[in-house]
């Protein structure tokens, strides 16, 4: 624990080619100790390759990877101080739960009895005390997932890697388990790198989200930052849903920009915007839907009743918008004309 | 001390010990007899390498120097890429030198006149012994450890060593023998280079004549073999398809028993079917007598020759084709056929337009397998060949008996090899990626369409008739051992069994007086040694191919699979040519039989383990690695326990094949190590059919027992304790 850098991760100009295909062209990334960082992106964006390079399961073509301040680029997986929770859990089906957890400890040279002691404590940590003699196939999906976490954590790694750990669970269980993982990480204070393609999951668990696209980092920041100040259309649409529309920045003063959209006006933090044409990310729930009054003129083209909210497609001067109205309980008929007022939140200039 | 240095110390220690203590050259009576220790001080051939150098065998100096060099590197340089590179060079130089000096200097000095005229005379040397073998292993290890230090394959020394060892073994026991055939073709009796034998044989009309097409007596043996193979492949594919269709798509009542048929060719020594056919259809055969008695026709000796061989081969190989095609027929996704039916196509149209085209690649595959099997078959042609043999038997007769013409054998072997390898290449190049059959198991619900009626009845009839015929043939085998003199004296007797397996209580206890016991126990012993070795080498190779990425992997896999297409006869003749003289001399030992079995049967183990590995999620290996286990531990603790079914299959298969194979074995047996099949063929040649049949049926019964035993011993994978896992979704409630 004396190493102040323990748990820190750094990618320095890392490149990974598969034959002629470049999965990751040039990655530079630093992760602070004790943080839970999510690599988020659509499939094929290079996030899993990045994780596997960190685990030592792939070797970078170029560049260096540092863990705890030490260059581990050429170190094989079994000699790195990281462990991984696999998407499929990869529990050894022929070993009992306890043997699974003790496996890594014994690989490290620990005596069998001591390893089983440690393993039992690890099982306790994830709330499965007393189930050690079961086979993985005798546990539910959620329990298997916790065993996989315990198996990785008992080795007290500098960094815990999680590769889409929730994708094999059903929706409700997913919410509970992700809270558990976050709590465990906060309590024990380990560094975690978490790969997912699910933005809700990323927003819920992360200290920091690294959004990747085509092997590049598209944006990197705290969840709130990404949601409220997307750097690109891709981010705006990927983190939460958004309507991306053209607008005019009329003037900028004291960091606030006055913006005109299809006849309506609003004021927003200017970020890097200058007067002239710009793009606006508008969340579907950023509108009040009114029959008349000020705001953007529009015509309902389709409406869907979904219980607690109503979804509209509305044609406006700024283009066709996807709008969610949670305020009223009856849907307007297609063809009726409406006024859309900006509610004040959920709108951001794309920098 | 790090792992790099530790493993280097081990191997260098071993090499030095071998150089100082172990005899460098082969010991005539066998190393493990240890009788040689008594003669240690009188015979110079028994001395270790260091002493050999001292008494003037200068060719061993480089070996000593290279090991000393490696020792110096170990102590003077730290482990790392730089030392790694030097170790690779040292190891490679050592191996190359061992091969060069071993091949260049034979028992009587230089092997090639050219070298003698350049360097003068040199004392002859015996074949490699324990010391040399250990040094070859050590040099191979130096190469892989060096590569590991350089960071190849993520620095995994275990994988690197496994790969290089396998390459060394395959090169020695597959490549070198095959190469020896071709060099053998160009050598005369004294080993001097000559093209005379090849020139004479390559144009021999007995091989290439096409005279039968224009009314001559018979075609050359090459064409005859090709013709036979095409006929056999056609018939086995057709019958195999009929069986597969009946087993999967009809309401035939005995479908389960049909599948039992597939075990038959595995447990039947290859010539047994031929023997049984003789008893049934030969001149004094049962069926012949019945028909001749009823019609008054004379059948004569038609069974001896191509028609008989063809019949025997179709009987023997139809189950193999059935086994292949049942997978193909079952593998076609039922939803394709259901889709066709919902598109208004009737059963016949569905079968003709959808099912059959989808099966086409599988049918071609079965055809090629039948072709290769027929080409490689030795047992049936040997028993039924009569005057018109095929390539495999011609090879045999050109080295044994009066002819003794090694260069003719080499030419014939090369021709046979060309045929089978072309078929193998066709199978790989043409069929790869054309497989429409989906690997079963997942998702696809639905039912296979039944056969159209106009197809079902003929197919069921054919299958029934052929099944009955097969049944009769096998009943003859079991029954034939109890009949005094088949066809002439049909009284029942136990004489044959007593003759073969007699046991008497003498004054000195139990005595195995039966004539078969000697070869029986040898067979069991050798099969028992070969089976685990085959399984181990096969599984390790399969694991490397399925799970590891290394340069040249495709070639490695291709070569291994190719060895499957080398006919046993060719292997037999090539082993004789390669291992009869130094540097590697093994003929007449049990070792040559074991090695032959290991490398002949390994490809099946490889295929089995690749298939089994495909079902194991790759993340299991990766999980083990990230949990700190090295690849050796991963293999031992995670992969092997999960591969138990594949291990059983590999063990059983290699054991049974070691017992039933004849083609390669017949060249390699010796008076001391005679195998059951070779002994039975001897009995057949002497006309002792009764004893031969009795011995064969005992073998079949033994193999059934062994297969059952292996199954119980290795047991099932224990992945689930109960068949129904407890309430699966605890948190959803």
TrEMBL record, chain A:
It comes from Paracoccus lutimaris. The keyword Mitochondrion does not apply. The keyword ATP-binding applies. GO terms for molecular function: ATP binding; ATP hydrolysis activity; transmembrane transporter activity. The lineage of its organism: Bacteria, Pseudomonadati, Pseudomonadota, Alphaproteobacteria, Rhodobacterales. One of its GO terms (cellular component) is ATP-binding cassette (ABC) transporter complex. This is Iron(III) transport system ATP-binding protein. One of its GO terms (biological process) is quaternary ammonium group transport. Gene3D superfamilies: 2.40.50.100, P-loop containing nucleotide triphosphate hydrolases. Residues 9-239 form the ABC transporter domain. Keywords: ATP-binding, Nucleotide-binding, Transport. It holds the Pfam family ABC_tran.
UniProtKB/TrEMBL annotation, chain B:
It is a multi-pass membrane protein. It is found in: Cell membrane. It comes from the Bacteria. The chain crosses the membrane at residues 7-25, 58-74, 86-107, 127-145, 157-179, 226-248, 260-282, 302-329, 350-372, 409-426, 455-483, 520-546, 558-578, 584-603, 646-669, 689-714. One of its GO terms (biological process) is transmembrane transport. Its main location: membrane. The keyword Protease does not apply. The keyword Transmembrane applies. SUPFAM superfamilies: MetI-like. Keywords: Membrane, Transmembrane, Transmembrane helix, Transport. Pfam families: BPD_transp_1. GO terms for cellular component: plasma membrane. Residues 222-427, 520-710 form the ABC transmembrane type-1 domain. Belongs to the binding-protein-dependent transport system permease family. This is Iron(III) transport system permease protein. It comes from Paracoccus lutimaris. The lineage of its organism: Bacteria, Pseudomonadati, Pseudomonadota, Alphaproteobacteria, Rhodobacterales.
């Amino acid at each position: 624990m004396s190493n102040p850098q323990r748990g820190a991760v750094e990618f320095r100009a890392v490149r990974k080619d598969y034959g002629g295909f470049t999965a990751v062209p040039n990655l530079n990334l630093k992760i602070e100790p004790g943080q839970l960082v999510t690599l988020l992106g659509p499939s094929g964006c290079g996030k899993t390759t990045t994780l596997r390079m960190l685990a030592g399961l792939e070797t970078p073509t170029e560049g260096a990877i540092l863990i705890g301040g030490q260059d581990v680029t050429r170190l094989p997986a079994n000699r790195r101080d990281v462990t991984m929770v696999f998407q499929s859990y990869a529990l050894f089906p022929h070993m009992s739960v306890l043997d699974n957890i003790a496996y890594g400890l014994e690989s490290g040279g620990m005596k069998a009895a001591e390893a089983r002691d440690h393993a039992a404590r690890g099982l306790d940590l994830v709330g499965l005390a007393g189930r050690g003699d079961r086979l993985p196939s005798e546990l539910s999906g959620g329990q298997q997932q916790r065993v996989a976490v315990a198996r990785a954590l008992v080795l007290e790694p500098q960094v815990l890697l999680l590769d889409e750990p929730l994708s094999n669970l059903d929706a409700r269980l997913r919410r509970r388990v992700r809270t558990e993982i976050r709590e465990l990480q906060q309590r024990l204070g380990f560094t975690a790198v978490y790969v997912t393609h699910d933005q809700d999951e990323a927003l819920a668990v992360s200290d920091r989200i690294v959004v990747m696209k085509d092997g590049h980092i598209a944006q990197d920041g705290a969840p709130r930052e990404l949601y409220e100040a997307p750097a690109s259309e891709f981010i705006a649409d990927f983190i939460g849903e958004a309507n991306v529309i053209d607008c005019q920045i009329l003037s900028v003063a004291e960091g606030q920009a006055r913006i005109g959209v299809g006849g309506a006006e609003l004021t927003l933090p200017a970020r890097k915007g200058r007067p002239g044409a710009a793009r606006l990310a508008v969340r579907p729930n950023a509108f009040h839907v009114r029959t008349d009054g000020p705001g953007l003129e529009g015509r309902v083209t389709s409406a869907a009743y979904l219980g607690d909210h109503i979804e509209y497609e509305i044609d406006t001067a700024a283009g066709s918008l996807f709008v969610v109205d949670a305020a009223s309980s009856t849907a307007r008929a297609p063809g009726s004309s409406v006024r859309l007022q900006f509610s004040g939140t959920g709108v951001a200039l794309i920098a | 001390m790090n792992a790099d240095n530790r493993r280097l110390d081990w191997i260098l220690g071993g090499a030095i010990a071998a150089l100082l203590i172990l005899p460098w050259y082969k010991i005539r009576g066998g190393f493990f007899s240890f009788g040689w220790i008594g003669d240690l001080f009188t015979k110079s051939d028994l001395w270790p390498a260091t002493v050999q150098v001292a008494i003037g065998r200068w060719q061993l100096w480089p070996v000593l120097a290279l090991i000393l060099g490696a020792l110096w590197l170990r102590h003077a340089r730290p482990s790392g890429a730089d030392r790694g590179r030097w170790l690779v060079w040292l190891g490679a130089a050592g191996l190359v030198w061992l091969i060069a000096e071993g091949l260049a200097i034979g028992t009587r000095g230089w092997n090639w006149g050219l070298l003698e005229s350049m360097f003068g005379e040199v004392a002859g040397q015996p074949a490699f012994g324990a010391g040399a073998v250990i040094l070859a292993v050590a040099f191979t290890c130096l190469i892989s450890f060096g590569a590991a230090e350089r960071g190849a394959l993520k620095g995994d020394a275990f994988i690197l060593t496994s790969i290089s060892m396998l390459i060394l073994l395959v090169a020695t026991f597959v490549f070198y023998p095959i190469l020896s055939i071709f060099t053998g073709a160009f050598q005369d009796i004294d080993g001097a280079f000559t093209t005379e034998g090849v020139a004479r044989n390559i144009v021999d009309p007995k091989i290439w004549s096409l005279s039968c097409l224009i009314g001559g007596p018979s075609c050359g043996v090459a064409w005859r073999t090709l013709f036979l193979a095409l006929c056999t492949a056609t018939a086995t594919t057709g019958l195999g398809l009929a069986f597969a269709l009946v087993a999967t798509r009809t309401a035939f009542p005995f479908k389960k028993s049909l599948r039992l048929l597939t075990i038959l060719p595995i447990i039947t020594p290859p010539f047994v079917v031929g023997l049984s056919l003789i008893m049934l259809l030969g001149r004094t055969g049962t069926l012949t007598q019945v028909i001749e008695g009823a019609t008054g026709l004379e059948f004569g000796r038609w069974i001896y020759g191509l028609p008989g061989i063809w019949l025997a081969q179709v009987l023997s190989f139809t189950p193999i084709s059935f086994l292949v095609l049942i997978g193909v027929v079952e593998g076609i996704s039922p939803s394709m056929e259901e889709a066709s039916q919902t598109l208004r196509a009737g059963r016949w149209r569905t079968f003709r337009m959808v099912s059959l085209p989808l099966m086409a690649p599988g049918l071609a595959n079965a055809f090629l397998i039948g072709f290769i099997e027929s080409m490689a078959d030795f047992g049936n042609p040997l028993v039924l060949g009569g005057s018109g043999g095929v390539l495999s038997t011609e090879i045999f007769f050109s080295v044994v008996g009066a002819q003794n013409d090694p260069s003719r054998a080499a030419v014939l072997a090369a021709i046979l090899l060309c045929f089978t390898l072309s078929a193998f290449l066709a199978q790989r190049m043409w069929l790869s990626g054309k497989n429409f059959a989906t690997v079963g198991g997942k998702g696809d619900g639905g039912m296979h369409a039944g056969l159209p009626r106009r197809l079902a009845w003929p197919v069921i009839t054919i299958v029934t008739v052929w099944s009955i015929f097969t049944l009769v043939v096998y009943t003859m085998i079991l029954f034939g051992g109890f009949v005094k003199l088949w066809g002439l004296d049909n009284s029942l007797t136990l004489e044959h069994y007593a003759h073969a397996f007699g046991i008497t209580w003498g004054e000195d206890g139990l005595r195995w007086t039966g004539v078969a016991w000697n070869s029986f126990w040898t067979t069991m012993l050798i099969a028992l040694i070969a089976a685990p070795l085959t399984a181990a080498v096969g599984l390790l190779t399969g694991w490397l191919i399925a799970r590891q990425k290394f340069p040249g992997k495709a070639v490695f896999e291709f070569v291994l699979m190719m060895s499957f297409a080398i006919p046993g006869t060719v292997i037999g003749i090539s082993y004789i040519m390669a291992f009869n003289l130094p540097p590697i001399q093994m003929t007449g030992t049990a070792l040559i039989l074991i090695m032959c079995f290991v490398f002949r049967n390994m490809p099946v183990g490889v295929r089995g383990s690749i298939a089994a590995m495909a079902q194991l999620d790759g993340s299991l290996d990766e999980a083990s690695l990230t949990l700190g286990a090295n690849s050796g531990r991963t293999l031992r603790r995670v992969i092997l326990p999960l591969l138990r079914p594949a291990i059983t299959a590999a063990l059983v298969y290699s054991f049974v094949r070691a017992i039933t194979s004849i083609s390669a074995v017949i060249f390699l047996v010796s008076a001391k190590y005679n195998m059951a099949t070779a002994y039975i063929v001897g009995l057949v040649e002497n006309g002792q059919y009764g004893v031969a049949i009795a011995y064969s049926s005992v073998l079949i019964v033994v193999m059934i027992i062994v297969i059952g035993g292996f199954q119980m011993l290795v047991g099932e994978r224990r992945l689930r304790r109960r068949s129904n896992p407890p309430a699966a979704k605890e948190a959803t409630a």
